[in-house]
Design goal:
Elements lengths: L8 H23 L3 H24 L1
C-alpha cells in the first residue's frame, strides 16, 4: 500500500471485474424475471461503479 493513501492498481481491476459480474447477473435476473436478484446485483453494480470512479480520481 502506498504511504500517501492511494489504493493500488489491483483494486481498480477488482472493482471493475466485480461491477461487470454484477451487471451480467443483473441482466440475467431480469431475463429470468428474478427481480429481487436483479435489484440486489444492480445495487452492487452501482456501488462498484462508484468505488471505481472514486479510485480513478485518486490516481
Amino acid at each position: 500500500m502506498n504511504n500517501n493513501g492511494q489504493l493500488p492498481r489491483k483494486w481498480g481491476y477488482i472493482f471493475g471485474i466485480t461491477a461487470l459480474a454484477a451487471l451480467g447477473t443483473c441482466i440475467a435476473g431480469l431475463i429470468y424475471k428474478e427481480y429481487i436478484i436483479a435489484f440486489a446485483t444492480g445495487l452492487v453494480f452501482g456501488v462498484q461503479v462508484f468505488n471505481f470512479i472514486k479510485w480513478k480520481r485518486q490516481r
